[in-house]
Amino acid sequence: MLKIRDLVVAYGGIEALKGISIDVPDGKIVTLIGANGAGKSTLLRTIIGLVKAGSGSVEYNGDKLTGLNSQQIVSKGLTLVPEGRRVFPNLTVLENLRIGAYMRNDEDGIQADIRKIYDTFPRLEERNWQMAGTLSGGEQQMLALGRALMCRPKLIMMDEPSLGLAPLVIREIFNIIRSINESGTTVLLVEQNANMALKVAHHAYVLETGRIKMEGSGKELLENEEIKEAYLGKKKK
């Protein structure tokens, strides 16, 4: 389980996270929704070691992550699919996938996992020779997910996986997120598409200007009138 307690992160004296606490139970999908600038991406970047916390703690399965570098954190079974996909545009699909396994030396296992990725994302196998920068946005998101899975994470964090994608592709991505979770991987999802995110979430938090405003099951928040108005585009009658 991932435990975050009283986490404070500041940029230039301005607090982006103001003492937030959340839990991500093993085997669950937990989603974090909120407007731009609420601090969602900052939280993920702090968990993975890209941003330093001012105070508070981040623990995973009893191990303290605060103060470790990103490589040490990834070695404990956490990985991040960053906003904007961030594939390596001048490398092929296959080369991008192999980079995801850069900390591994079990070639047989790597080959088996590449096969699993191709089974999950058939389009990646069709384009395994193609430069990643020439893929469509949806294909790049699939590649970013596949690359993250190559390190065999216990917990995968995703930052805005639906950003800039067509509705049909968004549905496909969320189906894949469900499938990843059903295979045993815990998911922490940051997403502006609140409707889709809450539908897949076991538990959800609402983040506003660096503070947790509300939490509950995905179903509870989907039915909450305040959430409907603020994030789902539904006006109160």
- Report the span from N to C terminus: 40 Å
Q: How many DSSP-defined strands?
A: 10
- Percent of residues in beta strands? 25-35%
> What is the number of helices?
10
Structural class: alpha/beta
* Order of strands, widest sheet: 6-7-8-3-9-10
Order of helix and strand elements from N to C terminus: EEEHEEHEHHHHEHEHEEHH
pLDDT < 50 runs, ≥5 residues: none
Helicity range of the residues?
25-40%
Indicate the overall shape.
globular
- Quick check: average pLDDT? 91
User: Main sheet?
Assistant: 6 strands, mixed
Structural Rg: 18 Å
Task: Give an overview in words.
The chain is an alpha/beta fold and 237 residues long. The protein contains 10 helices and 10 strands. The chain has helices at residues 40-47, 70-75, 93-99, 107-120, 122-126, 137-149, 167-182, 194-200, 218-222, 225-231; strands spanning 2-11, 14-24, 29-33, 55-60, 63-64, 78-81, 155-159, 186-190, 203-208, 211-216. The longest helix is centred in the last third of the chain and has 16 residues, at 167-182. The radius of gyration is 18 Å and the shape is globular. The model has no long low-confidence stretch (mean pLDDT 91).
Short description:
The chain is α/β, with parallel strands linked by helices and 237 residues long. Helices cover 37% and strands 25% of the residues. Helix 3 (93-99) packs parallel to helix 6 (137-149).
Characteristics:
237 residues, alpha/beta, four-stranded antiparallel β-sheet, 10 helices, 10 strands
Give the SSE layout.
Blueprint: E1 2-11, E2 14-24, E3 29-33, H1 40-47, E4 55-60, E5 63-64, H2 70-75, E6 78-81, H3 93-99, H4 107-120, H5 122-126, H6 137-149, E7 155-159, H7 167-182, E8 186-190, H8 194-200, E9 203-208, E10 211-216, H9 218-222, H10 225-231
Parallel strand pairs: 3-8, 3-9, 6-7, 7-8
Antiparallel strand pairs: 1-2, 1-4, 4-5, 9-10
